[in-house]
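Record format v2
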Amino acid sequence: MSPKPRATDVKARLVEAAIRLLDESGPEALQARKLAAEVGVSTMAVYTHFGGMAALVDEVARAGFVRLSEWLAQVGETDDPVADIFSLARTYRQAVAEQPQLFAVTFGQSAPGGKRATLSDLTTEEGREAAQEGLEAFAPIVRATERAIRAGRFRPADEYQAAAQLWSALHGFVTLEASGHFGPAEQGIDHILLPLGITMAVGLGDTVDRARGSAEAAKAAWRARTGNAGQGGND
Amino acid sequence: MSPKPRATDVKARLVEAAIRLLDESGPEALQARKLAAEVGVSTMAVYTHFGGMAALVDEVARAGFVRLSEWLAQVGETDDPVADIFSLARTYRQAVAEQPQLFAVTFGQSAPGGKRATLSDLTTEEGREAAQEGLEAFAPIVRATERAIRAGRFRPADEYQAAAQLWSALHGFVTLEASGHFGPAEQGIDHILLPLGITMAVGLGDTVDRARGSAEAAKAAWRARTGNAGQGGND
DNA sequence: ACGGTTTCATAACTCGGTTATGTAACCAGG
DNA sequence: CCTGGTTACATAACCGAGTTATGAAACCGT
């Protein structure tokens, strides 16, 4: 059970190969034979290390959560918590935009052959673990929300509940956008995501003007971070 | 092209069997041999009528969308458009809760590849006309939003954009709840969905008190419709 | 060094989507 | 009514992908 950090860690390399092939070639590339060939082993490695493809895909999904956590953790905290929330939203969306296949697996939308259960599969241990790591990715949103409440930008409220609302709105936008419902990237951000963020901020207690200001501040910070003007391109 | 309403309409019966088996036994029941056996034909019927399992699954996904439209269309319009939005939200959630497997397929299959018209065109003037047909499920939300704007409950705004925000928030909540992130049904509704609705309404221009009142009105109407007190049970 | 365990290769097995082929039913037109 | 073509299937085979059976080599504690 103790995963030894060997130089030739086949287990980790299988997951890495899965994520890479997933982004390169789509979900149909998530095959035991392909992954084994990629790593240079036989398909048996999949079964000694994971017990089957399902568990390997679960591991990929978990890796997606971890990666999302890392993205969000990179968003620093400024003295404007509402702007930080906008930055987290942009980052959340950007992560999904850069690795749509990975997060499709993570969010359970798509699976190779459509064979794995996605919704209402909470009775499995893997599902619960994934949910737990979802909470970890969720933490930065909770902290920013708490700071917004403390700063008087949001009305006094349970920070988890308020953050869950923000997370729902953000996740919904990202999911629908990834499904192609909101058109080109820049359009979806400007027409839906930013107004949605302002709506949420105002609804949670902020003023329209201050919310707009924070949205602008986050946009400027984003431009500075990404380095280009338009930041519309996904890659 | 003309689908004859034959007594032995194998095509329709295959889709029906797929939806039924999907809800009963999960996604793994979506197999050509199982469906054929269920209907009492050979697997060839799948290929003469659909061309393959993928197209049949597409048909199932489309059926889910239609079913969602029917659910939402059943929500009547009252003189309180914001309460109607709350009712639509409860209904949307209820539909997914009752057939999670079906909607997992529906939401997973709405691919950008399919040129089915979606929200993408709604934020541009020219695309709206053409997109109207493909958005039947979304239409009631847009109409309620428009009425809320007209009634002065929401600030003047593009009703499609505002509705897209509401849809994002709602869809995000439903998706995350179905993934098990929000605990038991009643808890998720009271702790997240209702506050989220109030947040959105207030953010779009409503007052806190009136939004709360509309939420209560929708809750009362829901109790009356479903007939039981708690309405927490999913079935 | 040695017995047990782990890791993996080879190859066979199974299941499920798909295709090849044939046939019976239906449907023109003569 | 007969006939040729098309459609809707059944039967059975094919094939790819997950899985398993088996065995060997490497690793490991004693």
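Residues 31-33, 43-44, 46-47, 52-53, 113 of chain A lie near DNA strand D (CB under 10 Å from a C1').
Confidence is low (pLDDT under 50) at residues 1-7, 110-128, 231-235 of chain A.
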